[in-house]
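# nightly structure sweep
# worker-07 picked up a monomer target from the shared queue
# config: single-sequence mode, recycle default, output format = structure tokens
# input follows
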Amino acid sequence: MITTLGVGFGIAVAIGNTIGAGIVRAPGVIATLLPSTRLYFAAWAAGGIYMSLGALQFAELGALLPQSGGQYNFARAALGDYAGFIVGWSDWISTAGSFAAVSIVFGEYTGDLIPAAHGHVRPISAGVILLFALLQWKSMKVGSGVQDLTTLLKAALFLAVVAVCFLHRATPVTAVASRAAVPVGWPLFVAFIVALQTVIYTYDGWYGVVYFGGEVHNPGRDIPRAIFGTVFSVLAIYFLVNAAIVHLVSVREFAGSDFAMGIAARRVLGLAGDNFIRIVVVVGLLSSVNAMEMATSRALYAMSRDGLFFPLFARVNAGGIPGPSLWLSTVVGLCFAMFSFERVAAILASFFVADYALSFVSLFVLRRRMPASTRPHRAWGYPWTTSLALAASIVFLVGALASDRENTPLTFLVLAASYPVYRSLKWASRRSAARAALS
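# output follows
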């Protein structure tokens, strides 16, 4: 693959990967579970701390193993083919689900803005997914150019929204605010874990540059810079957006809303404010779909490159794009687009954390197995920060399994069923490779 990418693209693709549908839907969901300003921001802070701890570890891993494909490369190098397959397979499926979820929200908001599009969420979602697949299929230059432009525009629009909100005083509440009681004891723990599912889904994507490690010009320097630049940018934007919303609207008032930013904007600009925010969201979602589709195809490409999937999907076209992987990922995304946003987000959160946990374990193993390897960047605070990140992942997964009996078990079921799938695919890919060698 072509190595032409730098820090700018790394930050752009990761911000595009991260800031999308989650920040639109998450505030109302979290406020419903934790109807207190302190608890609301505590959930966002806990997710931010977890993301920051993860960034310290991923910076070392990404610089040590600069290959396209994401976390799959870390787990395979440290723990073997099967662990790599678990991470690669779940990462591929979950990222495809993520861009599908984003396209669903895009369809919903487009329908709100354009009356003729109302009620056509699924066709619009599918159209967006196919549009970006076509743009990326042409060449990496086109895909990265679209990403740089849409991410810059998205960041500027979000910051404009924040500025407008802070420049106005909150007006008296005209609607009846939610009177939900703040949970205590075990119900509080359950509510906090479920809220963290939404927060982690919203933060996920900050490590986006590692999907393109083999295409970064100077990975030892640029991958850590891109990761830290992304984490700082995402933390700043999410904090400012949430602070701007709470500045104008109480947490209890936007509890249950699927568009808290719209409520805040209406306080300032009336109906025009609501439409303006929807336009901002629509532009931001386009950036997210593009970034996630690019990342998804790299995960499948990496597995195929290493013989854990069919060799066909390791092919790269003249523009540096893994075309077959891109199109299969697009098909999976189209299937996910048939479900609701909330269901997809709840299922994917545990996938993300399970992959993080295996990546943190991989760092411990690689430090022992490859002590003499050149490490352009070392995780600050190792092994303590790594242990804390891993412990947090385990606590979250156990808590999610105990508190969410509907969605989390599905994640564990898919992971448990991965072994027969792995054996079947590895056998099939070997046969396919043998036939190709004979022909």
